[in-house]
Amino acid sequence: MSRISVYDPFAEVFPELFRGFFQPTRTQAGDALDIRVEVKEANGDYTVQAEMPGVKKDDIHVQIDGNRVSISAEVKRESEQKEGERVLRSERYYGSVARTFALPAELDEARAGAKFENGVLTLTLPRRAATASKRLTIS
Predict the structure, then answer these.
(1) 54-57: which pairs have CB atoms within 8 A and are 24 or more residues apart?
(2) pLDDT tens, the chain, 139 aa long
(3) What is the pTM of this model?
(4) Where are the domains of the chain?
(5) What are phi and psi of 34, to 5 degrees?
């Protein structure tokens, strides 16, 4: 059986223009799927700012393993319904989001710090002190 494919002349010219055009519109609940991260380096420390709007502080988990940083959170968003209202459309989101990235240097987990304020998680990640290399004598 032969395979039929549809030729789309605009796919090569405008690849991003109509992508997602017929998919459901994203709402504020749908935007919870992305953790946007900004990483800065100054004085041997890394500062990571992760935008996590609508997430509660207790639902955020950060794990550091060498130079790898993992941020995860449980997201629960729902709309409030008042007495006497009839729900015509309800867009809720329940689920987890995660983001993992590697930094150029090993991190000192003991001196790392985290702060969550106004939907922005700020991590202060100091570099681990470089260990002196040891030359082995061959016997």
Answers:
(1) 54/28, 54/119, 55/119, 57/116
(2) 566 666 666 666 555 555 544 444 444 444 446 789 999 999 889 999 999 888 889 999 999 999 999 999 988 766 666 667 776 666 667 788 899 999 998 999 999 999 999 999 999 999 988 776 778 888 7
(3) 0.64
(4) 32-80+91-126
(5) -110, 135
Distance CA 65, CA 45 (A): 16
Please, are residues 72 and 86 in contact by the beta-carbon 8 Å criterion?
Answer: no
DSSP bridge pairs for 60: 73
Indicate the Cα dihedral angle 114, 97, 40, 123, nearest 10°. 0
Tell which CATH architecture fits domain 32-80+91-126: Sandwich (2.60)
What is the three-class DSSP state of 11? helix
Write phi, then psi, for 31 (nearest 5 degrees). Answer: -70, -15
DSSP secondary structure letters along 58-110: GGEEEEEETTEEEEEEEEEE-----TT---S----EEEEEEEEEE-SS-B-GG
